[in-house]
Fold this protein.
Amino acid sequence: MTTDDDSAPFGRSLCAMVTPFTGSGALDLDGAQRLADRLVARGCDGLVLSGTTGESPTTTDAEKAALVTAVREAVGDRAALVAGVGTADTRHTVELALAAEKAGADGLLVVAPYYSRPPQDALEAHFREVADASGLPVMLYDIPGRTGTRIEPDTVVRLAAHPRIVAVKDCAYDLLGTQKVLSRTGLAYYAGCDEQILPLYAIGAAGYVSTVANVVPELFRAVLDAFDAGDTGRAALLQRRAVPLVESMMAAGLPGTVTAKALLGALGLPAGPVRAPLRSADRETTAGLLAAYGELAADAGQSQA
């Protein structure tokens, strides 16, 4: 379910959902359905499946399609489903895009091809070929720290002319470049780094794709709601309150997948282990995550008292 709002085609509050596994490491579709239902019930109007946080490098094509089908069954039309289909191979990416469309996705998240580091003209051709292949709208995923290749602002501007390229997940840490694209296109920008949600929203972003939302789905939705209501002071306060948890989950030297699953597991929510080469968080790390979570929960309780 994409929205009717061109400024936020996949909703405002998106979670980069983890992919739950069983204790033996198999895909846990029942757990995925329960987690997805919880996320939507608590404020997410969009879910990104099989992204980085969803361990897309270590799930099979069949698992990716099954995940979309199961989550669609769980959430119905209450949330948009964006399927991560990006790979280092254009042909494979197209195959995944077609499979995601058939499984019931509303949109595609397409990352810049990694490792091969194509030049900008080849990068542009890659995205156009994927966008041409299916009828689904596309969210470009700009995260050069992981892929080794930046989707340069001028390339994004050219790609914005494609009728199915409608959005960008922004993890480039380039505020000037983001504003350049926003000023020259109608693309919907989504903050892909939790610490940048309010700053990017304040300059015209559509919303966010958050890893931290796996644990606290209502947190950043409240930031956007406060800002939209004109209470910018409260929006800033809520964003700052999130800093300890965001730092623990996203800036402590471990991938967000690892920290999100550790905290979800500690809270008794569907998650399971991560797949190799990732390794699950140790007890000390998990204790630190729980402490940051508890601090945020205590702050929220005091503000409501």
In short: The mean pLDDT is 95. The chain has one domain: 13-229. Strands lie at 13-16, 46-49, 80-84, 107-111, 138-142, 165-170, 188-191, 207-210. The longest helix spans residues 283-304.
